[in-house]
Amino acid sequence: ELGQFEHYMLKEIFEQPTSIENAFRGRLDDDEATARFGGLNLDPQELRRIDRIVLTACGTSWHAGLVGEYIIEEFARIPVEVEYASELRYRNPPMSERTMVFAITQSGETADTLAAMRECKRKGHPTLAICNVVGSSIAREADGGIYLHAGPEVGVASTKAFTSQVTVLTLLALFMGRIRHLSYPAGQRMIANLRKMPDKIRQTLECHNRVKEIARKYYTAENFLYLGRLHNFPVALEGALKLKEISYIHAEGYPAAEMKHGPIALVDEQTPSVFVVPRCQIYPKVISNMEEVRARRGPIIAIACEGDDKVAELADDVIYVPDVDEYLQPMVTSVPLQLLAYEIALLRGCNVDRPRNLAKSVTVE
Ligand code: F6R
């Protein structure tokens, strides 16, 4: 089943061009420039009434939710909150009857996510699942939902499920946007861009050899910082989580500008900072955050767009990714970070598919 790959994690990273395609297959409606879902089980009137969305999840799925928050708010102009399921289940925040809830989960069995979802459902909110495993507890108990169709994810560290969750949340932003503020041509542009993503991921995966070299240079470090802004802030969190989980290196993700409010104290010659810095509206601001780290002699690994010479000057090592619109960047920028975690864990002799202390689905509270 592993084929040419040494581990499930690597196989699943390389499946992403296909798994992303499977997430949007049959769901793009060119005539109406929108997305279509078979299983939402809500009629258009009900959907139009929704004035707030709560996304609830744990771990990597929670990071996908953060990306979703940015994209849904941008395109659908609906306020979104992302809640840790473990907190939401006990927190009881005020939620109007027009709030729709999505539980995001690869396994569909995560105990906290299930409990948070049950609590929202009990209160009468439309409660849906964005889920990979068909027929799982969360998929069965939700009022409706959207499957990822990513195929089985065996590696304990979630990879392809993340990019599929982000794809589905982008489709949701398109769909909710088109029943509100998003124009027909804007919807068409999103569809055309989404169709290009499998190829963009294929191109991104070509960085594998470069990532191996970088891993050899840094694998003995004991601390890493991951920094990004806007859509790439959740990517920084996710990159740090991947490294922690499988290589047991301490890593923290931050919005890059938060550095100066504390974490910059950690920067020294032994602490690499991974900057996720593709071209974006506030690119110059991220560059100045890089300069702050460099001034303190912190090694910099950058994820940047092809041909970015400015970043090449500032960083010690650069991994290039294709240039895509900002809202689509997390799908490409997360890939080199998955590979980096994988290669570093291998060099440290860790069991990448079955890291210590972790289980594929967390069915206890
Ligand atoms: C990280 C990871 C975990 C899961 C989390 C939620 O690589 O695998 O953080 O993302 O336990 O799991 P699901 O998505 O199955 O609810």
From TrEMBL:
Regions crossing the membrane: none
Record EC number: 2.6.1.16
Catalytic activity annotation: D-fructose 6-phosphate + L-glutamine = D-glucosamine 6-phosphate + L-glutamate
Active site per database record: K360 (for fru-6p isomerization activity)
Subcellular location: Cytoplasm
GO cellular component, one term: cytosol
SIS domain sequence ranges: 43-182, 214-355
Major place of residence: cytoplasm
GO-annotated biological processes: carbohydrate metabolic process; fructose 6-phosphate metabolic process; protein N-linked glycosylation; UDP-N-acetylglucosamine metabolic process
Keyword Electron transport among UniProt keywords: no
UniProt keywords, alphabetically: Aminotransferase, Cytoplasm, Glutamine amidotransferase, Repeat, Transferase
GO molecular function: carbohydrate derivative binding; glutamine-fructose-6-phosphate transaminase (isomerizing) activity
Subunit and interaction comment: Homodimer.
Function description: Catalyzes the first step in hexosamine metabolism, converting fructose-6P into glucosamine-6P using glutamine as a nitrogen source.
Name of the protein in question: Glutamine--fructose-6-phosphate aminotransferase [isomerizing]
